[in-house]
Amino acid sequence: MKRSLTPTQLGRLLGVAALALASYASVLAGEAATQANGALLPRDSLDAAIFRGGLVYANYCVTCHGINADGNGRAARLHNPRPANLRASDKNNAYIALIVRRGGEALGRSPSMPPWGEELTDEQVSDVVAFVRSVNARP
Ligand code: HEC
Fold first, then answer.
1. Residues 6+ apart with CB under 8 A from 89
2. What contacts 4, CB < 8 A, 6 or more positions away?
């Protein structure tokens, strides 16, 4: 039997999906769920960059660096050295952007940290840097 959703059902479903994404990003960012309604944030605000960066992180980084950004992702044990604990990183924004773009090997570190420069746009890189900064313990 073929069943299709009514516009109302579809709207609800999309709403739930958007909410789930927003709260996922806010959990990653360690913020209250209500703060991370991305659609309501001004595009050029830091909060918006962190929100978008959380989505980049969830797509490209979480399997290794983990849901808490502490280096304990599901694939972490496959790598030696282990993925870095990004909460405890002592690196500045420029370094983080560099290793994200060029990967570990280009910086004399482990090739297990892949280069993302071909994959991510400049905005995605700066957003994910903002996200990493937001979960990082250092100012
Ligand atoms: C396939 C696993 C893997 C993925 C996916 C991955 N990383 Fe990594 N990452 C690593 C490993 C392993 C290291 C540690 C390299 C070393 O110590 O030589 C690392 C190191 C880093 C560092 C250096 C931190 C420090 O304090 O020195 C940063 C920043 C980083 N990763 C960010 C990211 C971001 C952002 C993403 C997503 C765009 C990402 N990584 C995706 C494995 C991964």
1. 96, 132, 136, 138
2. none
* pTM of the shown model: 0.79
The C-alpha atoms of residue 125 and residue 119 are separated, in whole angstroms, by: 10
Euclidean distance between CA atoms 136 and 71, whole angstroms = 12
Q: What distance in angstroms lies between residue 85's CA and the mean position of ligand 1's atoms? A: 9
Q: What is the pLDDT of residues 94-127, one digit of tens each?
A: 999 999 999 999 999 999 999 999 999 999 999 9
User: Which pLDDT score is estimated for 31?
Assistant: 47
pLDDT > 60? residue 2: no
Q: What is d(CA 45, CA 21) in angstroms, rounded to the nearest whole number? A: 19
Query: Which amino acid makes up residue 61?
Result: C
Q: Going from the N-terminus, what domains does the chain have, and what CATH number goes with each?
A: 7-135 (1.10.760.10)
| Position in ligand 1 atom list of the atom nearest CA 96 | 29
Closest residue (by CA) to atom 2 of ligand 1? 64
Contact 64, 79 (CB under 8 A): yes
